[in-house]
């Protein structure tokens, strides 16, 4: 929860502030706090200019400077760049974390290792009542992300220590003769009390100082990063070693002319009044086709609720295939080349273009009965790999089925072009044939042998699905790294965290199994059917985590997950008195409440907080100032095999931006990287030896023609190829992590997917 304090009104003329970004993942949160305080904000990277003089020559005049947090040390020029010269300019200055340490270093104080790293942790901060803290209680709670501190004994007489912790660590400084301030904690964090008020206090102090100086011109607000200047490659882990992508070509807003306005959507309810079984429908209509998709909300029951009785987290399922008159396949291969495959099979190379450019060209509204349609109204369905646009596959879906699990309704949707001879007749024919095929097969939930949208667990249910693996894997799976190698990586991360190189690193490993030996091999569809029974989740690929949901109205939602606990029902169900226990286990809340109530709770909350602040930052790059909110922080959600801490971050897109811009700004998902994102991507690349994660850790979902989008984070996923079956699992590493516990968490996360593979390979096994 954020707090506010009242203070004198700011002057009517906006204060122009230079915000120097030290490649941190929280800088945009500072940007929003400053902008909400009435400031006009110019944002530059710390390496964007060779010197302070060059910076001042290139930018319009500014009245104050804010130096952001960031990884590394202010003593390292590569980490601090032009910031080291800012303190000599004599302007009002506010340093946060790394910027605070830089202020101390600039006048001869010593910056050294803290007694312990404080990443995502809260402390009581007491201040001396200086003007920066005007209107704030003498003590308040603040979030800390740092491994280095200013040594109190080294602070020279020109600086005053104005805030501290109970143990005496320096939390704030003030220059005695210049309007320069620093705070070690993060006022921009969602959990820092009075953080926005503190930033506004600095803006007021800087404005008073500026009023005594020569008046300045007032250009319009410069956004921190224009979406039009974004390059998808600049967000890719493979480019993580390149700190600045300002020379990347802009992404064009749109290519070519939009489709004629006469094109429209045709919608027809199918099923003859019965709610159809989605698994049976997909198998009957699309299962044998070479290119098909199924965005499967398997955690929904027929009533729209989850198997645990909670409200549905994903109401709709969608399925379709390649082959409609407007259908096309957009592919981005390992080498970065982009090709477009048309309905006729022609493969066209899109040289000189970008993936986002090609996708945006098709995303224009079509006329139709929009009020009767689910959020997906035709458009792109597919995935981005973790390596961003270097590997992706997207299908433009113009004919598909949509299942509304709450309304128990199924509709067929078709994009048609009635202005062209025979096109509307062809579309109506497809709708009629689809309805007839479903009516003939009688694929209602009550008739289907496969069980239907209500995911049924095998004998042992969640208990069997989430039993941990001990020392290895099953079904022929082998981890790409042994327990010893993985824990050694964690020890290396501890060193980097202590040195201030990162706050949190999301480390992963891959489990691989050889291809099935059966002839013919079992289909990937059968694997998904097994996975949806063993580990039902809101979206396809068994992932419960939402990366981004964008509404047609520009609203944005992200639901990062950090903190997982094995369902305690697994333990109780295996005991001798399991019968009575199993009755109790049917109430997930009985176990969810205690799942995080032990010594690891602080670790889980630190992990979640760091990612929430990171997601706020990512959405802040593309959302209107003041619109980014956290309506739900660290709520416990229960799934078939785990309890998880889930937060919700929302915002509203800036005018002129769209869902593709939002995906570019936030990719790769912060819950799969850690923070600060740029430096942490470099660390991950080193520790994982440059081995691509592929689809795992990427994102899967849809971009609708009306501007809506829903994308997950690809976890809990088995990938089938000619080389075999693979899946990834991992976790966030912070200073409080236990290497053994982290390895155990990897196995807990992998187990439901491995169990599904076992069922896939043994379709006749009663245990499946």
Automatic annotation (TrEMBL):
Domain (Glutamine amidotransferase) ranges: 18-203
Residue segments, region Disordered: 213-259, 558-583
InterPro entries per UniProt: ADC_synthase (IPR005801), Anth_synth_I-like (IPR019999), Chorismate_C (IPR015890), Class_I_gatase-like (IPR029062), GATASE (IPR017926), TrpG/PapA_dom (IPR006221)
GO molecular function, one term: 4-amino-4-deoxychorismate synthase activity
Composition-biased stretches (Low complexity): 227-238
Pathway: Cofactor biosynthesis; tetrahydrofolate biosynthesis; 4-aminobenzoate from chorismate: step 1/2
Name used for this protein in its record: Anthranilate synthase component 2
Pfam family name, one: Chorismate_bind
GO annotation terms (biological process): 4-aminobenzoate biosynthetic process; folic acid biosynthetic process; L-tryptophan biosynthetic process; tetrahydrofolate biosynthetic process
Lineage: Eukaryota, Haptista, Haptophyta, Prymnesiophyceae, Isochrysidales
Keywords, ordered alphabetically: Folate biosynthesis, Glutamine amidotransferase, Transferase
PROSITE patterns: GATASE_TYPE_1
Listed NCBIfam families: trpG_papA
Domain Chorismate-utilising enzyme C-terminal as annotated: residue spans: 483-749
Biased composition (Basic and acidic residues): 564-583
